[in-house]
Design goal:
This protein is mostly helical. It contains eight helices and two strands. Among the domains are: about 100 residues, Tetratricopeptide repeat domain (Serine Threonine Protein Phosphatase 5, Tetratricopeptide repeat), CATH 1.25.40.10; about 90 residues.
């Protein structure tokens, strides 16, 4: 077993490499941030020197900023003011080159026409107008498929779609609007007839209960009615008659409309023919006091 002093020395020796690696890694990770901070300070200083008309010193400071800057935004701003320095010293070619380099890094750059001479503003904007179009992101195309790699089943949907498409010489098919209207009204008539029939049976049961005692139907022994029951019975009798008539009318109307819907289902698509066949015989519907009339038109 090691002595306590030897164990402590071993722990210190083993920990030293890890501590050294951590101490080295921290400055490395913080280096980009420090460079950006220094570059931003140099750009700000270069702009201040430009404002003081110290154009040579401004270019030197901005060149230092380009050496340490990492972001395109800072590099573009530094090159912009280098171009302004050249323009202030009447060096249009060097100014144009600096403006172009700045705009290629950041096309949103602009200069204030109120703070710079019209000739400098014009040079900058002409340089921006002469830039090539901004590159667009290339879209990846699907891999080419060999004709021999296409299976017959992959072609069937397209072939079926072409086969189902109407030919140009076929007359246009119209939606069966009147067929759906007639069928819908017929269904509504049938539902209404059933509903009225149910209420009719309820009224009939109530009338029977007034006439017959101790039985479930009207075949039992009748009894005398007092004035109140007689008035109630007569009202029910009139209501039963009206509902019986309404039920019969609804059943007949529903049957007629259902038959009309069947006729329309087979005939309606052929009624809307093209203008070239307008002289042929066609079927038409027209309302009349007797109901719906179906006729032929030449």
């Amino acid at each position: 077993m090691l002595p306590r002093r030897a164990l402590t020395t071993a722990i210190i020796v083993l920990s030293a490499p890890a501590l050294g690696a951590r101490a080295i890694a921290q400055p490395t990770a913080a280096q980009p941030r420090a460079d950006e901070t220094r570059a931003a300070a140099l750009v700000a200083r270069g702009i201040a020197l430009f404002a003081d008309a110290e154009f040579a010193r401004s270019r030197a400071v901005l060149a230092q900023a380009l050496d340490v800057a990492r972001s395109s935004r800072l590099k573009a701003r530094a090159r912009l003011y280098i171009g302004l320095d050249h323009a202030a010293e009447n060096q249009p070619d060097k100014a144009r080159a600096a403006f172009r380099a700045a705009l290629l890094l950041d096309r949103s750059l602009d200069i204030d026409a109120r703070q710079h001479k019209p000739g400098v503003v014009s040079l900058f904007r002409r340089t921006r107008a002469a830039l090539p179009p901004a590159p667009t992101r290339a879209t990846s195309l699907p891999p080419a498929v060999s004709p021999t790699a296409v299976s017959p089943t992959a072609v069937r949907p397209t072939t079926a779609a072409h086969a189902a498409a109407p030919r140009r010489d076929e007359p246009p098919r119209a939606a069966r609007v009147w067929t759906m209207v007639a069928a819908g009204v017929a269904a509504a008539s049938f539902v209404a007839a059933v509903a009225v029939g149910v209420t009719l049976e309820n009224d009939r049961d109530e009338a029977c209960s007034l006439l017959v005692a101790d039985t479930d139907d009207c075949a039992g022994r009748s009894r005398l009615l007092d004035a109140a029951d007689r008035a109630r019975y007569e009202a029910l009798h009139r209501r039963i008659g009206a509902k019986r008539t309404a039920t019969n009318v609804l059943w007949v109307a529903g049957g007629v409309l259902a038959a009309a819907a069947a006729v329309l289902f087979w005939g309606e698509p052929r009624w809307r023919a093209p203008a070239a066949s307008a002289s042929k015989t066609s079927i038409y519907l027209a309302p009349s006091p007797l109901g719906l009339v179906i006729g032929l038109r030449r």
